[in-house]
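Notebook entry, cofactor series.
This is the third protein in the set we're modelling with a bound small molecule. For this one the ligand is LMILMEGD. I'm keeping the input format identical across the series so the outputs can be compared line by line later. Sequence and SMILES below, as received.
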Amino acid sequence: MFSYTQLRKDYPEFIYHGYQIKEEKERICLEYDFEIPGLSSFHPTWEFPKKDEENRKYADDSTFRNLAFSLGMVELISYWKIACPPKVIVEAGALTAEQILWWKDLYFNGLGEFYYTNGISENQEDFMEIVSAGQEISADALSDRRLEGCLVPVGGGKDSAVTLSLLKGEKETNCCYIINPRGATLKTVERAGYGEAQMCCVKRTLDKNMLELNKQGYLNGHTPFSAIVAFSATIAAYMEGKKYIVLSNESSANESTVEGSTVNHQYSKSFRFEKAFHDYEAEYIGSGTYYFSMLRPLSEFQIAGYFAKCREFHDIFRSCNAGSKEDKWCGHCPKCLFVCLILSPFLSGEEIIRIFGRDMLNDPDMTEDFRKLTGMEKEKPFECVGSRDEVNAAISLTIDRMMGQEKDLKKLPGLFRYYVLNGLYRENDPASGRFFRYFDEENLLPERYLELVRRECTKGER
Ligand SMILES: CC(=O)N[C@H]1[C@@H](OP(=O)(O)OP(=O)(O)OC[C@H]2O[C@@H](n3ccc(=O)[nH]c3=O)[C@H](O)[C@@H]2O)O[C@H](CO)[C@@H](O)[C@@H]1O[C@H](C)C(=O)N[C@@H](C)C(=O)N[C@@H](CCC(=O)O)C(=O)O
Ligand SMILES: Nc1ncnc2c1ncn2[C@@H]1O[C@H](COP(=O)(O)OP(=O)(O)OP(=O)(O)O)[C@@H](O)[C@H]1O
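Returned structure with ligand:
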């Protein structure tokens, strides 16, 4: 592995040269031009379907060009992190001093896990200087853009399935958005009752040079994928004529991964990012879209409770990132264990085993992840998992049910026996009542959806 300090000396600059918009009748291709002088150039691409009958010329639309430029600004971080050059020169467009601060904030916080896991100590002031060296995008937006309905990004896991279910009354005007479709994303959309006409599937291609440099041991690690979802979904919503971009990020995503620090694997799923993106879009892009997360008021506990009733998705949903390429639950990772634990108060033991294809709760190899998820360790797993408190509430509730009146420890699977023997079990835990009724007021839900979420998801049993 290369040294961070040495790489920054050897490669002092990263250049965002530009982007090309290739417009065809049925699709628009974006190609970015990045370079780390002396190391490599990179040309990642995106393909968006073009469906509107009026055959608009998006390349002539300044709002679209601004969106394309901005997607490049977020895309570049995956390439920058290879050598972390201290200076980033943006030739592709112009940025104000405030915008530069905004991008530095996203990069720095979105790379919190990258710094932590690579053992790099950095600060937000010095890690990067951004130089704006491009032309302002001239203002010639298409004037008659009328936006209505929702664009729902679908990840193939339980959260976006819950959003689709909550929005079933508005099916006619909804559109599902998928980056690089795979089994679970496509099946989720189908099960929710959407046909091809109501899907927007885009193709994102990473540059091969990055993958090659990763193999050679250049710096690699987590990047804020949900920020990619945010910017690219705004392009899709604009092209599809959709007003709302409806994410499925929950309140629990705000909790840091490393206790007592700001390192959060899910930074770009947090409310801090949601609000920052929402405001940036309104201030500097102005596409007319409205970005918010439908599940922001909720905990993962409530989402799991609601999802347990959405049986149409149980055989096809896949939350596991490790198994996502093969469309399977790997059954051995912290994300699989988390989903198993959070669903366990709401489904029977047999149903849980049927979903994951194995009995994780009786697998001693899962003990370390179990300790991390329950807060027995300071660090949560670097995965999209819920808060420590809600995991504990879910476990205690399930143990109540499994042990029954007899309080028979033998009825419990291995991990739950371990939990009781470590003194963590709380009989009839009052904390679970809190999670049934939880409602995070820090959210951007339009009025019409607030009541829907409150009604459907916060009226639990305890
Ligand atoms: C790593 C990643 O973001 N993957 C998403 C990507 O998958 P893709 O097939 O295009 O690439 P990989 O095979 O995963 O990675 C190949 C190498 O390229 C690097 N890389 C990849 C993407 C990127 O944006 N930057 C990169 O530098 C990477 O380091 C490898 O060396 O797109 C898919 C959709 O098309 C996503 O589904 C992939 O997401 C993974 C399942 C995944 O695990 N993503 C994690 C970032 C993750 O934790 N995702 C969270 C979101 C958290 C957040 O936004 O902060 C989640 O989905 O729960
Ligand atoms: N490939 C993708 N295309 C479009 N949107 C995506 C994609 N992957 C993730 N998203 C969006 O990002 C959100 C967060 O991803 P995440 O994987 O946490 O959620 P999920 O797949 O819906 O549920 P789970 O938490 O069970 O995995 C998703 O709900 C979805 O809105």
